[in-house]
Amino acid sequence: MLLASEMVTFCVLVAPLPHVVRKKLFHFLSESPIIAKLAYGVKIAFIFIAILFVDAVQRMMRVTAEADLAKSNGAGAGDIRTETNVAARKFYAQRNTYLTGFCLFLSLVLTRTFYILLDLVHTQEEYAKLKNENKSSSSEQIEELKTKLAAAEAKNKDFDIVRKQAQQNAKEYDRLATEYNTKTGSVSDKRKD
């Protein structure tokens, strides 16, 4: 039952869930005091399973050695019940070894997968936070740059206006100077066209 529940839990953890559902599930699993007590009880159960695994390995080795000894001695070669009994004991010892071994192995895989996925959820949250901050800071920078651009364009327009006025003033001065020179009869060599 524990092995089956581990397999179901593993399938739920690696199922392709939407980010919001996965986030809520992992926050519940990592922060719930009930789940923490349940995890503590499961850790104790795995200590007992580890003891059962060691016992199953020893029993499998002992039954295998007894079967090999019986084959080498030739005892019970004609007795089908003895051979069946030895084969059944060997099968049960191997089955217990595999079941407890897979249960322990899957517990390690399940624990590591849970923490990897929990890190993934936290990383996705941080990424979303940084993305939002980047959007807000980039929008602020864009607004600041637009303000600076508008100010530069206004200065450029002002400069163009002042330049046009200077050109008009220079033309008017030249016209007035030429008119004055023609009325007074003086010629200036300062300006050459």
TrEMBL record:
<dbReference type="GO" id="GO:0006888">
    <property type="term" value="P:endoplasmic reticulum to Golgi vesicle-mediated transport"/>
</dbReference>
<feature type="transmembrane region" description="Helical">
    <location>
        <begin position="38"/>
        <end position="57"/>
    </location>
</feature>
<keyword id="KW-0931">ER-Golgi transport</keyword>
<feature type="domain" description="Bap31/Bap29 cytoplasmic coiled-coil">
    <location>
        <begin position="140"/>
        <end position="190"/>
    </location>
</feature>
<feature type="coiled-coil region">
    <location>
        <begin position="120"/>
        <end position="183"/>
    </location>
</feature>
<dbReference type="GO" id="GO:0070973">
    <property type="term" value="P:protein localization to endoplasmic reticulum exit site"/>
</dbReference>
<keyword id="KW-0472">Membrane</keyword>
<dbReference type="GO" id="GO:0005789">
    <property type="term" value="C:endoplasmic reticulum membrane"/>
</dbReference>
<dbReference type="Pfam" id="PF18035">
    <property type="entry name" value="Bap31_Bap29_C"/>
</dbReference>
<feature type="transmembrane region" description="Helical">
    <location>
        <begin position="98"/>
        <end position="118"/>
    </location>
</feature>
<keyword id="KW-0812">Transmembrane</keyword>
<dbReference type="InterPro" id="IPR008417">
    <property type="entry name" value="BAP29/BAP31"/>
</dbReference>
<dbReference type="Pfam" id="PF05529">
    <property type="entry name" value="Bap31"/>
</dbReference>
<protein>
    <recommendedName>
        <fullName>Endoplasmic reticulum transmembrane protein</fullName>
    </recommendedName>
</protein>
<keyword id="KW-0813">Transport</keyword>
<keyword id="KW-0175">Coiled coil</keyword>
<comment type="similarity">
    <text>Belongs to the BCAP29/BCAP31 family.</text>
</comment>
<dbReference type="GO" id="GO:0006886">
    <property type="term" value="P:intracellular protein transport"/>
</dbReference>
<keyword id="KW-1133">Transmembrane helix</keyword>
<dbReference type="InterPro" id="IPR040463">
    <property type="entry name" value="BAP29/BAP31_N"/>
</dbReference>
<keyword id="KW-0653">Protein transport</keyword>
<feature type="domain" description="BAP29/BAP31 transmembrane">
    <location>
        <begin position="1"/>
        <end position="129"/>
    </location>
</feature>
<dbReference type="InterPro" id="IPR041672">
    <property type="entry name" value="Bap31/Bap29_C"/>
</dbReference>
<comment type="function">
    <text>May play a role in anterograde transport of membrane proteins from the endoplasmic reticulum to the Golgi.</text>
</comment>
<keyword id="KW-0256">Endoplasmic reticulum</keyword>
